[in-house]
Amino acid sequence: MGFEEIAGNSEIEGIEFVEYATSRPKEFGAVLTAMGFQPVARHRSREVLLYRQGDVNVIVNADARALDGETEAGAVVVLKALAIRVPDAGMAYRRALDCGGQPVPTRSGPMELNIPGIHGPGGSVLFLLDRRAGVSFYEVDFLPLAGARVDVPALAGLHFFGIVQYILAGETPRWCNFYERVLGFSMLPEGVRFGVLPRGAIMKSACGRFFLQFIEPPAGAEDAHWQEGFNRIGLGVPDVETAVAELEARGIHFVDSSLLGNRELGALTRTLVGGTQFELVHHSM
């Protein structure tokens, strides 16, 4: 299969969900609630909850083996997976394998969807979903919580913006090439930046609604421990200052803007349970 054929059919339709693995689901759930998310459904066969606000779905996986394979001693919350919605999951999966992707063993139980996945950096997972059958993944694998509303309003216009991915030194070209060939992402021009982190390469999805940022270890820190994998999600908001004010009133505190630059462009939460952080980025839908 040639490069042109691979790239020509590659595009995404959106982000279906992100998944956190944790051994402290109640504490992490309280953080998500403070961020404006609400629990809406429970997995049919595992200790997994679905949280939602607006178009952002967050799966909290507290299954007994959720943190298996993590190399960081004592990890209690890990951004483990990103699920990407594509026109044809089977085709996208085969294309990913052709491009060198490593398959993730299926974890579906009886009467649950078999979602194809490939490994990202540091043991992270990229799931590929489609809706060709007209059935939502959540309707099959999850049972709604009693009294929970399905359409949770988004606080301050919050929506998915992107994900920050930590990679090893010198690995930027390899991962950029992979996302370009498999999912049609393209590199942004040098100097185009969003949010609070000024370094690293940024790629944009073909639909223009989702971004990936790759961060290598800083110069001089080659010998330091560097946790490869998904680091945090970026949440777009039309007005960063307004969103920060609303979240701080709910108990979520942010890194001092004097340490990060212009608060109008973005903001970063202080470290939350398990070292988790969320980034706000100025962005309108």
CATH architecture classification name of the largest domain: Roll
CATH class of the largest domain: Alpha Beta
The Rg value, from CA coordinates, equals 18 Å
How much helix, percentage-wise, in residues? 10-25%
Number of domains: 2
CATH homologous superfamily descriptor of the largest domain: 2,3-Dihydroxybiphenyl 1,2-Dioxygenase, domain 1
Number of E-state strands: 15
Order of helices and strands: HEHEEEEHEEHEEHEEEEHEE
- The end-to-end span amounts to 36 Å
User: Tally the helices: what do you get?
Assistant: 6
Shape: globular
Mean pLDDT: 85
Strand content: 25-35%
For the largest beta sheet, what order do the strands appear in spatially? 6-7-5-1-4-3-2-8
Question: What ranges have pLDDT less than 50 throughout 5 or more consecutive residues?
Answer: 1-10
What does this structure look like?
With 285 residues, the chain is α+β, with helices and mostly antiparallel strands. Helix content is 19%, strand content 29%. It is built from six helices and 15 strands. The radius of gyration is 18 Å and the shape is globular. The relative contact order is 0.18.
